[in-house]
Amino acid sequence: MEQKKFHLIAADMGYGHQRAAYPLLEMSREGIINLNDYLEIESWEKAYWKNSQKSYEKISYFKRVPLLGEIVFRVMDYFQRIEDFYPRRNLSKQTLQQKIFFKAIKKGVGKRLIEKLNQEPIPLVTSFFVAAYAAEYYNYSGSIYCIVCDADISRAWAPINPKDSKIIYLSPNKRVAERLRQYGVNENKIKITGFPLPSDNIGENDIFLKKDLGMRLNSLDPSGIFMDKYRGVLENNFLEIDQLKRPLSVTFAVGGAGAQREIGALIMEKLKNNLLNKNISLNLIAGSRQDVYDYFLKIISHFGLEKSDMVKIIYHPQKMEYFRLFNLCLRETDILWTKPSELSFYSGLGLPIIMSEPVGAQEKFNREWLIGIGAGLDSLDPNFVNEWLFDWLHDGRLARAALNGYLNAGHSGVVNINKEIFSNF
Q1: 341 neighbors 366 (Cβ within 8 angstroms)
Q2: Can you give the CATH number for the domain in which 380 is found?
Q3: Domain count, the chain
Q4: Are 154 and 44 members of one domain?
Q5: Model-level pTM?
């Protein structure tokens, strides 16, 4: 009997939409199809997305320019703003951002793709709300599922006419579910599944996840303050702490626009002695960006660390291969330092998140969510990371954040999503 499959649509814009889709590859019919770069996309349609992406990346990078950069970024961010959650109220009114995207749909964005997929109307699963718009507008006859990629969302994620929509939302948390209800989405169209995390980092019955967390807690608590208090509870219930010592592993991830790369250079500079003494290792995540990779190579050479095996760059020009390498790196990572992007959900792997400055409204809400579950800490001044990082290690707060992420962020998203889709198919 042939295994059931679904169509899987993302967007090649930064990393968020594709990263959310990557763990579901095994169940997809064609692999990941990108709405902005599919096989038969027309030139005008591809140009529309390319120009949109270039504008976003330029503004994200331009944000670093004193005063003017901040003003320009705030104007852009205003159009994708997320309204205050309280007081609870009806927020179903359409927004300008939504109208702009829907105008593009009416012009024909996604039309050819949806018509082609409709020849085999198996479930359509997307991590990009515009693809869900297109599927509904062009009468996709199968079921439509939309995976939400942030801990809170703007009105643009919900349908233009939510009460009449067939789109089913796969929510990463309760807040998103409540927000969708504010936007007018029917209760029976909202399923709380958790964010899809890579199965290779979890394993059957969480075997990889627990093993990696056991090793990580040992590295994150050199003074034993945290483990002396909780070892019995942890080992008696679900987790064996690995006593093998290894150098502390810090992974710094640059976002899809390539901004904040300088923080990685500063971390390397301030921890240079620790790297040379081999009591810390540093992974610099360049993603699929050649320019960021070249920048990190230059910085490594500048600090005389090109022969060190304690500094690695994770890079591959093809995003799917980059995701695989990144996930492999995370299995030996103790601390993930990043913007509070979709990687916030990777705290569910038992990773404490050190958060650099949020970029955009959704990342501010991701930050709030991470702090709320106790899995994320705001970065202090990177110029003094060689001081405060070790204070955080010795008082046990990073070990506590790792365990909080494991317990509170969720890590069963892939299982729950597949169950939701295929129980109705």
Answers
A1: yes
A2: 3.40.50.2000
A3: 2
A4: yes
A5: 0.93
What residues does 6 pair with on adjacent strands?
28
Q: How far is residue 44's CA from residue 54's CA, in Å, rounded to a whole number?
A: 15
Residue 254 located in a structural domain: yes
DSSP 25: G
The tokens for 212 are: 């990696």
The Cα-based distances of 154 to 74, 105, 149, 183, 412 in angstroms read 15, 19, 12, 9, 25
SS3 85: coil
pLDDT for residue 1: 47
Give the distance between the most distant pair of CA atoms in the chain: 63
Q: What range defines the domain where residue 79 resides?
A: 6-197+413-422
In a domain, 44, yes or no: yes
Amino acid letter, 35: L
Kindly state whether residues 216 and 166 are assigned to the same domain.
Answer: no
In contact, 331 and 349? CB cutoff 8 Å: no
Q: For residue 44, which phi and psi values (nearest 5 degrees)?
A: -65, -35
Question: Looking at the DSSP assignment, which residues form a beta bridge with residue 126?
Answer: 9, 146
d(CA 270, CA 264): 10
pLDDT at 62: 53
Residue ranges of the chain whose pLDDT lies below 50: 1
Residue-wise pLDDT for 378-392, tens only, equals 999 999 999 999 999
